[in-house]
Amino acid sequence: MDDLFLKIVDGSIPSKKVLETDNVLAFHDIQPAAPVHVLIIPKKYIPSMNAVTEEDLPLIAEIHRVAVEVAKKLGIAESGYRLINNCGPDSGQAVGHLHYHLLGGAKLGALTG
Ligand code: 5GP
Question: Does the complex come out with an ipTM higher than 0.85?
Fold first, then answer.
């Protein structure tokens, strides 16, 4: 399986890590869309939100906890931030490994469809 983010998890592709737990990794996006743009991923392979099972729900909770910790660590917890998941072609999901974009550090534009 050719999974870019598993290569980031195993270190064969380098990344700028922000925070790591046994199950979750947070690292800076290579092409930031905001002053703070961090990707938060499960270390295990899940292709998209559509593939999240009941068993994965503690992991999804952990991702949310990590998002808050990252926001605090990078000083944007109070100024505010956005957590986004792209799922499937219409969303623009380009990497087939579940990931959440944490964006902040500036006033963000309105969500558009
Ligand atoms: P998607 O469009 O799938 O929701 O988002 C994928 C994100 O992964 C994009 O924001 C893109 O910039 C980021 N990305 C793609 N390749 C790499 C990489 O090799 N390293 C890092 N840190 N981010 C990447």
Answer: yes
